[in-house]
Known about the structure:
The structure is a single chain. With 551 residues, the protein is an alpha+beta fold. Among the domains are: 380-458; 467-549, Lipocalin. The longest helix is centred in the middle third of the chain and has 15 residues, at 180-194. Residues 1-7 and 9-21 have low confidence and may be disordered.
Amino acid sequence: MRRLSLILVVIPAIAAAQPRMSPADSLARAIDRVFDGWRDTEGPGCAVGVSRNGRSVYERGYGMANLETATPIRPSSIFHVASVSKQFTAAAIMLLARDGKLSVDDDIRKYLPEMPSYGTPITIRHLLTHTSGLRDQWSLLALARGRFEEDRITEADVMDIVPRQTALNFKPGAEYVYSNTGFTLLAVIVKRVSGQSLREFADQRIFKPLGMTSTHFHDDYTMLVPGRTSAYEPRDGALGWRVGIPNFDVYGATSLFTTVGDLLKWEANLDKPVVGDAEMVSRMQMPTPLTTGDTSNYGFGLTMSRYRGARVVEHNGADAGYRSYVGRFPELGVGIAIECNGATANTTALARGVADAVLRGELGPAQAEVMPQATATVSAELLARRAGVYVQPTTLQIVELSVRNGALIMGRQAGPALVPVSENRFRMPGQPVELVFANGEHAGFDRAAPGVKPVTYEWRQSVAPTKAVLSAFAGRYVSDELGGAIYRVTATDSTIELATGTSTPFPARPVFANTFLGAGYTIQFSEAKSRVTGFEITDSRMRRVKFVRMP
């Protein structure tokens, strides 16, 4: 593997030549080690920027911006930063609220009359905080098409499918479930209220005032962008990379093009506002109370968390082969921006490594991962009683527990072994998470973690598949919520297969009565008079989309 010489922008005040290693040299080497896996000329890479007290002090590029042209990544390279975009969409909405053009507590149907009424109003605030209950646009479009990559996706596609939804994931305000749909709708609201596209509005009101000259919302997939990086994903079943560039013009939830240096200018604005004011940026960084009494750590396009005792305001992003992160430690005056063009990059982990290098001596002790030791002995008989299939009745997430080599494991064949704390409590290795079982035969469990309301899972009787049983599910099913998408279901000896249009069929295996798992979906079939009549399909961001069996 050939090594790439680093592309570096150094602020002279911290990198002046010295006869022996300076603090800046030491910092550079520490950050280099964080990106050691992204420094060769035969793979994608990353750009990183660091600011202190609102001033950029360190910017570097590692790896390749384009593998076909052998172009290296520079600090000035432009990346698609995916969901990092959301805070800029939120800022545009807040500027319109500051102008008196709208209120964050307005019903969205005031601006989006094509949206159906769900009995309880959805407000702009719900969209900003992922508490609207709206099903995620990407999940809907992928399910409707049976594939995601081949066809260009536009704002019109989203605005066609979203109003077709006859139900929400949950009552607005009751839960936090990440939904890109909300931020695409916010972009439409900006356009309808201001008379400008989000691209035009953000350019005029945010990017130009802050000198973010390399930043724009990318609303034209065909537009040429000098200095843009390509992006890459691992090639399936083989070594090397394949091109992984987003195939959509949709923006608001995503599609911001920018550099690490420009992102640091935005981070400085959050500390000392030039765009907006202190009240506006403070509101963007407040946690969100839920109607259940819980609180979400998501504000308006920003996540609040802590690292080694320090407060962090941050967001990451992932689309196709692009990965990104921007965040800051407000009390410590440090901002970090990372942009990568390889799908395997964990930008949040890289940002933590940069923070460790930059904030040496200013952070609390590291939380070294310690594998917990068993503190209880559980009989084989009791372990066998805990094994089985469990479902979360609200989200329909399914957990399968098995016994392997005298331990209770997550999964059917392989998975992490749970650590017994007592006969009824098992800890996830390396995590402060426990499964707490109720007493009795076939009892369910609560998934418990510090500071989080326990989540209950119920036991279900597993089923043994036979072709005779599975053949009852075969047929054609249509979904009006997906614009008339038709899925063909066929049966094999042990699974069913689902396909629509020209998509490749995906298998789904039975887990309990009328319920299947496949391709990240939970698929629940319904019956009437001993005949299968339809199914509902669910994933982590889209619940119970309805299909009806065709004659």
